[in-house]
Specification:
Elements lengths: L18 H53 L3 E5 L5 E4 L1 H7 L23 H7 L5 E7 L5 E8 L10 E7 L1 H23 L3 E5 L5 E4 L1 H7 L3 H4 L4 H5 L14 H7 L8 E7 L5 E13 L2 E10 L1 H22 L4 E5 L5 E4 L1 H7 L21 E6 L5 E13 L2 E10 L3 H33 L6 H15 L4 H12 L10 H4 L7 H8 L1 H9 L8 H7 L20 H16 L10 H10 L7 H12 L6
Antiparallel strand pairs: 1-2, 1-5, 3-4, 4-5, 6-7, 6-10, 8-9, 9-10, 11-12, 11-15, 13-14, 14-15
Helix pairs in contact: 9-11, 12-13, 12-18, 12-20, 13-17, 13-18, 16-17, 17-18, 18-19, 19-20
Amino acid sequence: MTAPRPPLRPPPADAPSDPDRGSRDELDELRRRTHELDRSRLALLSFPEERQANREALIRANREWRTVFDKLDDALFVHDREYRVLLANRTYLEWAGLPEEQVLGEVYWHVFPRDAGPHWLCKQLVDGESTDVHDDMVLPDGKILRLSHFALPGSGAQDALFMHILEDITDHSLAQQALEQSEARFRGIAESVRDAIVMIDEEDRVLEWNPAAERLFGYSAGEALGADLRRLIVPERLRQADERPRGFESFLSTGQGPIVGSVQEVMALCKDGSELSVELSVAPVEGNSGRHCVGVARDITERRAIQRRLAEGEKRLRHIVTSLGDGVVVLDANGTALFANPAALALLGRPEEEVIGRQTGLPLAIGNGAGIEILRPGGGAVWVEAQVVESRWEEHSAYVMSLHDMSQHVQLERHRRYANQRLQEALESTIGAIALALEKRDPYTAGHQQRVSTLSVAIATTLGLEPERIEGIRLGAMIHDIGKIYIPSEILNRPGRLDPREFELIKSHPEVGYDIIKGIVFPWPVADMILQHHERLDGSGYPHGLEGEAISLEARILTVADVVEAITSHRPYRPALGIEVAIGEIDAHRGQWFQNDIVDACIALFVEQGFCF
């Protein structure tokens, strides 16, 4: 169809009356109109091609949209006002377990997730009461879904469409539950442990302050939380004015620092102005608001007092060693002399400055009682009997060598025995003092360790153990309850029953005692006796549930003696029960808790030999 031709434009009113000029203008206008008509015709001719291109683009966009729709991990479906499914992606069909033809047109609660009717929030959406709603749903198989419902834009009120997005949040929910349970467990542990637990943020503000911290430092949680830790418990003389503790900036950026991962002994300030020694360990914690610092502090005031007493005992022992008639040389693993008493220097024929820090030439692997020849620098030689034991010297492994001059064997033997006797007496005096210090705090069990020691020696003798081993049992039994020095006296002497928390504190005494004694070098397994004297053959004991041969023989003997003495003695919570009850107890559990031959030896002592405490 040809477009109507537009009328020619009349010439301007002031145009000159030039017939040639008018013809030229009309011709130009005609040419312009012809060009416009040609353009219109071409546009009309090309319209079908543009329409086809638009159709193909639309089909391609729809296909791409459907591909993305089906690749989503979340389940999506669209329904109408009658809740009939009009469109569903691949994930929704997989979760429903149905092909598309069985899903489309069905009300969605007959497909997935199955229910008696529409979700209540979805109904509110369809009824126009809300526009965008979310809810979580737990399926019968335990899967947790997060439901998002919203109306699709562009649809009218009557033909409105609604989309549901179903997101599987099972793993997230379980992780959240696990996190909450972990936090609850941590808080339970923090509130029950005997060590102070304190957490601070990057500004040194207190974030956590457990009950043990309240007891240790005297500040309640309400007073401590949010306070500056340095001004709370760091003695003023140790604070750095207007500065962070050294290395703290590095800790904030890297989680590393001078004290991270180590145990430090520091002084701490209490609310009442007093100071105490604490053992502090520090660890970094990543928090939502930055890197935090957690410190665990333990009161070691009593331990330091014990260490001072032990150091004094070591000083006395060194004095005794210095005065010995026999030579004593302490060597490291390379044979370098670390210590030599005057007698050893006399035997070596050299002054101290030529011995200490130098190789002595004395052989280490010579056994006990071996004779060696010492060549003196100025000529001549002396034969000595050498004994070597592995020990520790100033916190390092070392060998202690005693040198006995064989030329004056009789006289020096007498001096050696006298010196050993003094060493033994010093050791026993130290052990006795420690035992007495404990029993002063617990008058109801006064003499308990001594009586257990006497019975343990009698049992070991009946079993035929060698005298040296029996001596170790005697001394170990005398201090087997040293760990109770850590237990408050009001708990030790309480006449009523202990609550579970207090009983757990009592049960810690073998480990505490072991920690106190393990650094002292004994020729017997004294520390193991202390640690294991509440273990049982069947593994039902504490602290480590050891079984059978894993428990040392000394500890097995000590266990039986400890039980018998405890039953026959008066306790704050009950009177003495008598030897018959004690014998019945160990006999009833022979082979289960107690070793048979040890039980037999103990019963024979009381029944056949008339043993009594």
